[in-house]
């Protein structure tokens, strides 16, 4: 039986200048290459203004065609003015993708169209699906994908084209229910959370990890990872710290790993909060760290904390658990599904509740969950939820989509 051929289209995808941008999309598609054939189109925004804006000018350096591990990726340019006139992208994005289809991928007889973002992907994906009479799949990766918070035309366009997807993969039950509320057919949905690179994110003894990072042996460590934005909820952890310090000692430290994010700069507010509460000795803003050092940080931590106000399927949570690190996480996105997939991996608490977060962190810091034996066993058990596990779940959706004729 020949492999299913997949045309993957995603505004969100890593490239030569942003190697970790949407890396979870790459991980899933790369894992699927064992079972399918995938070609990726990742259009890159362009305008004459981009070269004058530090945040965007390096995008010009991205080659048109690249290869990363098993995947062949095309990066056509589409006209986009940062932050304004977003409605025009429906047309410019479609034109850029069509040009690649008509030239470099002209002979590629794909079976399914696989989208990994909503805007401006959905109108283009629907157009290709209709023209070639191929099923249209969409993956919902976060509440922001619905653009309900945005002014302008994007919200309406996403809602209208969401109904045209033949199959929808939601990373969480929350995303599935939001999609259904907006009118998508319930029977078209599957819930499949992200996998994790269990070879990279694996157990190592805590004392070894601490030595590698040059951390003090007697420190009790909470690690939190993410962009320094309001949505990540670092302020909620900081607010819980005074009581935690009173119970667990002055050697308790919170290491926040991450840099400024795309959703606004929350750094000043966080710095001010730490100073106001007199926690300068207990909160360390570590900044961005290399990806291959993240497993060391997870293994050095007594507990990992995800305090987000909103998520899809948070990779940092599964990465920490895959290392055997016990976790405390807020009940957003796929968090509950992750935390309930195996016993004794930590606690799930309501979002926006600093007190509940503190109680759960205290419980884990006091519990035998932090023992090296327990951590090593948890890492072994959680290793089953790798990207191959995820790819096989997605493959089932591909196969199901091909069983229904496209009108």
Describe the 3D structure.
The structure is a single chain. With about 400 residues, the chain is an alpha/beta fold. About 35% of the residues lie in helices and about 15% in strands. The chain has 14 helices and 16 strands. Helix 1 (about 25-30) crosses helix 14, helix 6 (about 205-215) packs across helix 9 (about 295-300) and helix 7 (about 235-250) packs across helix 12 (about 355-365). The radius of gyration is 22 Å and the shape is globular. The two termini are about 25 Å apart. The model has no long low-confidence stretch (mean pLDDT about 95).
Any key phrases for this structure?
six-stranded parallel sheet; 16 strands; eight-stranded mixed sheet; alpha/beta; 407 residues
> What is the oligomeric state here?
single chain
The H/E string reads EHEEEEEHEHEHEHEHEHEHEHEHEHEHHH
Distance between the termini: 25 Å
Our Rg estimate from Cα atoms comes to 22 Å
Helix content: 25-40%
Strand content: 15-25%
Largest sheet: 8 strands, mixed
Task: List the total number of helices.
Answer: 14
Number of strands: 16
The low-confidence parts are none
The gross shape turns out to be globular
Structural class: alpha/beta
Describe the strand arrangement of the main beta sheet, using strand numbers. Answer: 4-5-2-1-7-8-9-10
Residue-averaged pLDDT, rounded?
A: 94
